[in-house]
Amino acid sequence: MEEKKKELEHRKEVARQGGGEERIARQHDKGKLTARERIHYLMDEDSFKEIGMLVEHRCTEFGMDQFQFPGDGVVTGYGNIDGRLTYIFAQDFTVLGGSLSETHAEKICKIMDLALQNRAPIIGLNDSGGARIQEGVNSLGGYADIFFRNTISSGVIPQISAVMGPCAGGAVYSPALTDFIFMVEKTSYMFVTGPGVVKTVTRENVTAEELGGARAHATKSGVTQFVARDDKHCLDLIKSLLSYLPQSCDDKPHRLRYRESSELRPKLEELMPDSSRKAYDMKKILIEIVDTKSFFEVQEDFAQNLIVGFARVGGQSIGVVANQPRRLAGVLDVKASRKGARFVRFCDCFNIPILVLVDVPGFLPGTDQEWNAIIANGSKLLYAFCESTVPRVTLITRKAYGGAYDVMNSKHIGSDINYAWPTAEVAVMGAKGASEVIFRKEISESDNPEETARLREQDYAAKFANPYRAAARGFIDEVILPEESRSKIISAFSMLRNKRVDRPHKKHGNIPL
Ligand code: HXC
Hints:
Radius of gyration: 26 Å
Structural class: alpha/beta
Shape: elongated
CATH superfamily of the largest domain: 2-enoyl-CoA Hydratase, Chain A, domain 1
Bound molecules: hexanoyl-coenzyme A
CATH class of the largest domain: Alpha Beta
Number of strands: 17
Helix content: 25-40%
Oligomer: single chain
Number of helices: 20
């Protein structure tokens, strides 16, 4: 038995070594942790249990039968994060560049199946040169097996991807099929075709970082939701995100015990400018409404005219969607609509109530917007709100104009409780634009067109630039003072805790993609 024990320990030790000391040192020199170090850092101490440590590849081409790396370039298993069961796979770049072989893919699929069957989140730490070139189509099949499982698990368990190294070719599609992507600045990149191919085909000269680095995907494409400074920061952010999520669509998010801090919150009304034409920072308002230090922003650098993120109210996890008047006056455009729609759908999948803060002058006009399908993209956000059945609360702080009033979680599309501050203006459009249309003839024919225009604008504003018409119709449930916002919102979500909505049976809807 002693001999057998020694052999087992030796085999395990070889597996733990991955690609060996030299390659591990190279990984560290790049500022990256190894696959095992990442898992160790992320999971609760001693909770990780590895599966498939001794799996070996089956390739015999190009001399591959001459060597083996037990584990085959990916560490897979399960453990706890903050005491909650989580499944994980971490690609080991020190073994053949973390490239994906048939067996490497089988290991990932085994973990994905377990996560789905046991209804717990799965985290993928990607660090790979893509398909194992020596294996050809076997490797491509392996990717497709993963894509299929990503799709089947979508909306059942939270799936989180971190891109912590290269991620090229079809390999980008697994992360893209999951719920959230984290990238690490300067050490990670994602693209379908790399700079070399880009240069050949389009003659563009671009570096890997410019083409698919963390900043490019955070600001330009919106593919990544989070950017981390380094590996540890990335893993810390993943932990924070998980704390807002339930284990699966069958659960509700974990509720934290919350005690109101004794610190006085600033008066919300002081954060609002006097003139309705002046910008202000909606983030400051939302941070004062939710529990102290609970706001966790998603896609912070993309489409900044719409803020989305998780927070807590009275310890309860919620998703927040808010117009940001500081960027493009808070208007809805193609990017903001896509960003909002995806976030709302995620919250709805996982029973996370939604709070919507509204100050929106409408949809952004222009050929760029129309030709980039603001119609289809705006309706994504509309569709996402309409189909969601989680508790939904809206607060209109200022403008709620035109179609954007309808879209931003209005009563008509299923919001449960709609509040407005006395500063709210619920109307078809702003008073200036509206009066210029309705009174065009009178203004142009008047002896003093400027004065007539001013008076007509005043008339229109007095009639419509307020929340009372909407409140009279019951479209607004209550006009509240800014300082009442937090307690009203906590109480509304608490009242809605057992909300249940049944919708007609269908296979699935057809969101305007
Ligand atoms: C096999 C690979 C590999 C791969 C890297 N390696 N990528 N082995 N298959 N795809 C090996 C290298 O030979 C090397 O082995 C080790 O990993 C580290 O690679 P380096 O090149 O030394 O590292 P670095 O300089 O950091 O460059 C990393 C890299 C580069 C940018 C990822 O290795 C690279 O360009 N690899 C090829 C990428 C690629 O074309 N992949 C296929 C994409 S198509 P040694 O023994 O020297 O340490 C694809 C299709 C998927 O993925 C489709 C799904 C639908």
